[in-house]
């Protein structure tokens, strides 16, 4: 890819959202959102269904207008960009291509509208690995092929800012792996990449930074590393067949101990060295002591517990229970 620069028409390649608010009738879709997407990294935009991710992206891309606040690409609103295709690329809905149109023709038409050379169309088709399939009609494409065509379209103008709305939704494992690697490589080239998902696990190996949203608000704006460290806490995981004795010994030394598996204890308030020392001293056999490492999914569940739009009522306590397994609920 030639000529990628970390600037747009208006300035540095960033997306800056400030105090964004949008209502649809009685529904507040976006409720005062502020965040920045920096160049050179993948920023995950995560939140349950209905959290306001798509609405925010549509406003950034000038497809919807905000009631309040600003959304800037390289310092300018989308509508003020002189050559939008060269400054920002996006994939919002892979199904948006006319089924009767050949993939390559779709891109040629877009390239033509921006006076881009035909050569660029073939370059992006190669980049996304569509090759010969590009001469077939889009109506016969698999979901994965449509996603690739959508990504090719986003890259046509070689833009330094990219937005992808749920790009791996519904893809097979191979398609998911390909998109993850591809997003990372786009960020490594210095681009600002914003990618939304309602499943944290989809971003586990992709995002460097996360903007977590719930009910139209930012819940967390953090690097993945910091989030995992905070969710992991100072806990230690112990594997032992002598669970009851181990619990007594550790609790006696001031630890708070929870049985978290058949052979597993999670210990707080003691570090790993002290745990080893105490168990060894008491003659308790154990096969492993390690710092507890939370998964991104755990961290996310913790963060969004109270922020899902469609919470199921808990049958016993009456408290809303976060429904994080929302795949089936997708539009
Ligand atoms: N055009 C619209 N008219 C009315 N309500 C809308 C419209 N677009 C979005 N909404 C509502 O605004 C809220 C936020 O929707 P949005 O699609 O932005 O969320 P999301 O985080 O992208 O969710 P998903 O993961 O389901 O795509 C939802 O309650 C949704 O029903």
UniProtKB/TrEMBL annotation:
The entry's keywords: ATP-binding, Nucleotide-binding, Transport
Domain of life: Bacteria
GO molecular function: ATP binding
Matches recorded under InterPro entries: AAA+_ATPase, ABC_transporter-like_ATP-bd, ABC_transporter-like_CS, P-loop_NTPase
Sequence ranges assigned to domain ABC transporter in this UniProt record: 15-240
UniProt KW Disulfide bond keyword: no
Pfam families: ABC_tran
Gene3D superfamilies xref list: P-loop containing nucleotide triphosphate hydrolases (3.40.50.300)
Protein family (similarity comment): Belongs to the ABC transporter superfamily.
Protein name listed in UniProt: ATP-binding cassette domain-containing protein
């Amino acid at each position: 890819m030639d000529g990628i620069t970390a600037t747009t028409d208006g300035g540095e390649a960033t997306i800056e959202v400030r105090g964004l608010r949008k209502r649809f009738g009685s529904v507040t879709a976006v409720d005062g959102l502020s965040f920045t997407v920096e160049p050179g990294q993948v920023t995950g935009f995560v939140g349950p269904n209905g959290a306001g991710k798509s609405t925010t992206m549509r406003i950034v891309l000038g497809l919807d207008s905000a009631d309040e606040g600003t959304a800037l690409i390289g310092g300018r609103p989308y509508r003020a960009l002189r050559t939008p295709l060269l400054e920002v690329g996006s994939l919002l809905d892979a199904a948006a291509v006319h089924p009767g149109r050949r993939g390559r023709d779709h891109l040629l038409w877009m390239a033509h509208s921006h006076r881009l050379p035909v050569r660029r169309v073939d370059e992006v088709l190669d980049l996304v690995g569509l090759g010969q399939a590009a001469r077939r009609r889009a109506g016969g494409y698999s979901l994965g092929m449509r996603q690739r065509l959508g990504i090719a379209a986003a890259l046509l103008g070689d833009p330094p800012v990219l937005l992808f709305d749920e790009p791996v939704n519904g893809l097979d494992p191979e398609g998911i792996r390909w998109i993850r690697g591809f997003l990372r490589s786009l960020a490594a080239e210095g681009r600002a990449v914003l990618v939304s998902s309602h499943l944290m696990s989809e971003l586990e190996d992709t995002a460097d930074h996360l903007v977590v949203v719930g009910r139209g608000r930012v819940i967390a704006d953090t690097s993945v590393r910091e989030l995992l460290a905070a969710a992991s806490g100072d806990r230690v995981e112990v594997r032992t067949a002598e669970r009851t004795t181990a619990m007594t010994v550790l609790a006696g030394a001031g630890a708070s101990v929870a049985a978290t598996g058949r052979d597993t204890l999670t210990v707080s308030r003691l570090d790993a060295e002290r745990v080893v020392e105490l168990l060894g001293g008491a003659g308790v056999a154990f096969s492993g002591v390690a710092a507890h490492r939370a998964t991104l999914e755990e961290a996310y569940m913790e963060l969004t517990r109270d922020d899902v739009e469609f919470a199921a009522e808990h049958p016993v306590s009456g408290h809303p229970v976060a429904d994080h397994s929302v795949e089936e609920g997708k539009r």
